[in-house]
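Q: For a teaching handout, I want to show students what a protein-ligand complex looks like in token form. Below are the inputs, and the small molecule is magnesium ion. Please produce the holo structure.
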Amino acid sequence: MSETRCGYVAIVGRPNVGKSTLLNHLLGQKLSITSRKPQTTRHQILGIKTTDEAQILFVDTPGIHGDQERALNRVMNRAAGSALTGVDLIVMVVDRGEWRDDDERVLRSCSAAGAPVLLAVNKLDLEDNPNAILPVLESLAEKGDFAALVPLSALRNQKLDVLEQEIVKRLPVGPFLFNEDEITDRSLRFLAAEIIREKITRQLGDELPYSVAVEIEEFKEEGVTTHISALILVERKGQKAIIIGHKGSRLRQIGSEARQDIEKLIDAKVMLNLWVKVRSGWADDDRALRSLGYDDGR
Ligand code: GDP
Ligand code: MG
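A: Here is the structure, written as tokens, with magnesium ion included.
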């Protein structure tokens, strides 16, 4: 048998550059549930991609991003810093259209972590003129010391194979740590929450990135059905009313779209319960955050 590679990879970037889309598409749709716990406690694993020759372990880096102004961001940035320690490779995602201060801050966290950084230049599909991407790549290349730049479209699945190759060849040689069909249930919870968030965003348009949070309260298999309860946390009463909509119509729509996507993802029947709750000023309150699990473990 030829040699295999296996390693930890973090996907980082400021909000809205396409990290979740990228992870979902890299992992693909066919995921299976495992009850086995990861062998290592070094990182929280979001998802595992196994190919013939390599196993990529995508790790959770809660909210590496730039906006330092609020308590939520402070806590999340601390957590993210520690989550980057010891990864084998970092994939930093940027929007091909712009480089912001937030990107600069994310890059600084990456540099501090010491792992090689691959720059995924996302949303290539929004560029009509193929000649325009070259100068963009040239100017991005000068922002930092990148192992490689890969222009791609996470949404349209363009050049994700190139990114995968660039990732794989930088992983340490070693045996697979997981069975080929394994994925943690943490991944599924995470992906379910991301799907719900995506449906909310789609219904409401682009809101402030952290004004809506989704917490999965229950994720339980019972026979052929998976029961999921999720709490949608908003900052203001007005936002709650907007999400619920006229006689609950919008929340039903969000729930129905999310349920269908989650069913495809886990290949099982899903019962999805959504609740909307106002946690007034929650993004500004360190204590409330800790109770929500946004704690950095200190
Ligand atoms: P995250 O905040 O970094 O996780 O970003 P998301 O994955 O949630 O994506 C933010 C928005 O950008 C969503 O509306 C995505 O559909 C959109 N998006 C992500 N990747 C692409 C892409 O390759 N092309 C285009 N046009 N939109 C994208
Ligand atoms: Mg995301």
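A: Two things your students might notice: Residues 19-20, 194 surround magnesium ion (ligand 2) (CB under 6 Å). The first strand starts at residue 5 and ends at 12.
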